[in-house]
Amino acid sequence: MPGWRDTLSEQAQCDLDGLTAAAVEFALAGIKAGGEFRPFALAVSVDGEQQAIAPDFPGSPDLTVVEQLAAHWRAVTEVKDTLRAAVVALNVTLTERRCDGIEFSVEHRDGAALGLIFPYAIGADGAVDVEPPSEHAMSPRLWGPEV
């Protein structure tokens, strides 16, 4: 069975690899600073530049994670015509594994849409151990025939 890489151009693969690496680093910075991170979105512009996509949150600092996540998706959707790729990230609890995870919804305008979960644990010394990701299929939210 062909993987997602088999259907994408080399440029699209590079976009997604670079974006995922940047998102892991961004998530790790939040984890190291506060033990977790809030939902966030990063993207690759049509010019190939990586950028953060910040939603226009309402004035309340008490937004639920679901509200924050929805706001990030709205923000990315609003600018999707200026982007080649995007990732929306969420800190999750992996109950069966008894650890936390960095969950990404990653999309490219050339047709890739996949979910990645990087399990992680924070050691007694504060070091963060990140495991290789699991991949799962996902329906496109930004680009594709269903959108």
Termini separation (Å)?
Answer: 25 Å
Estimate percent helicity: 25-40%
Please give the count of helices: 2
Strand content: 25-35%
Spell out the key features of this protein.
alpha+beta; about 150 residues
Question: What is this entry, summarized?
Answer:
With 147 residues, this protein is an alpha+beta fold.
Question: How are the elements arranged and paired?
Answer:
Blueprint: H1 10-34, E1 40-45, E2 50-52, H2 65-78, E3 83-94, E4 99-108, E5 113-122, E6 128-130, E7 134-137
Antiparallel strand pairs: 1-2, 1-3, 3-4, 4-5, 5-6, 5-7
Structural commentary:
The chain has 147 residues and is an alpha+beta fold. The protein has one domain (4-137). Helices cover 27% and strands 33% of the residues. The protein is built from two helices and seven strands; from the N terminus they run H-E-E-H-E-E-E-E-E. Strands 1, 2, 3, 4, 5, 6 and 7 form a seven-stranded antiparallel beta sheet that branches. A hairpin with a 4-residue loop joins strand 1 (40-45) and strand 2 (50-52). The two termini are 25 Å apart. The model has no long low-confidence stretch (mean pLDDT 90).
